[in-house]
Amino acid sequence: MKNHGVLKYSIQAIDSRECVTVLEGSVNVEEKFKRNPDFDAVLKKEEELKNLVKSVKGNSGEINVLLLSMSYLAGVRFSDYFYSIQKKYGSDERKFEGKYISQQEPIPKMLAEMLADQDEKLDYIYVFNTYAVVNPEEAMKYNLKFTGSDKPYTTFEYFKERIGGLVEDESRIVGVMLENEEEKVNISKALNDFTKSLITHSEKAKVNLYVDINGGQR
Question: How far apart (Å, rounded) are the C-alpha atoms in residues 104 and 107?
Fold first, then answer.
């Protein structure tokens, strides 16, 4: 049985007189594990974006880098995102919209779509992480209805799964630690590590840096 089907059971009970009672039956668990329609919408949008990114050749003379600060994912719920772009010429607007779970999902998704409109790609995503968002002991086992999987995820792992198709491969989603296991924050070191990566990229091509500046840590 894989996420759905009929679960058959047999229960034997023995009382003090050693009389055996057998109870048999079955439970249809298909509905219980049916994915939430909102999650299907998330997957559909991700597939559309993945195909869009694949269709874009990109500018080999430039590298597009996105910097985020990860928010801890304490539970699963769906929210909507949308935005509009005013055309340079004329009054037409293009509206992009979708659903998301991880708080930082909409940013790379919207940016990838905006860049594709300019025949460009998102090349790297750097994420400032606290220890809590990568700590295996903080991993959560989210409901199948919302994730399509019953494996445990850390916040950062779940984020990478949601937006992995927007870059060439998952290794281009790079975590930069803000603190160590003892939760000693070292922002200067994190910024220094990230700056070194930018310098390395700039030696190969022009770097376009996009930064999410919303929220407390940012």
Answer: 6
- Return d(Cα 64, Cα 58) in angstroms, integer: 10
Mean pLDDT of 12-26: 71
Helix spans in the chain (H): 37-55, 106-117, 144-147, 155-163, 187-202
Tell me the two tokens of residue 211.
């930064």
- Please say whether the beta carbons of 23 and 13 come within 8 A: yes
Give 106-118 pLDDT, tens digit per residue: 889 989 988 998 8
CA separation (Å) from 104 to 1, 23, 118? 34, 49, 23
CA distance 86 to 179: 40
The CA distance from 132 to 178, in Å, is 11
Give residues with Cβ within 8 angstroms of 79, minimum separation 6: 99, 100, 101
- Residues with Cβ < 8 Å from 63, sequence gap 6 or more? 123, 124, 201, 204, 205, 206, 207, 208
Give the number of other CB atoms < 10 A from CB of residue 128. 22
pLDDT in tens, 144-174: 556 666 678 888 988 898 888 999 889 999 9
Note the pLDDT of residue 88.
57
Q: What are phi and psi of 25, to 5 degrees?
A: 180, -170
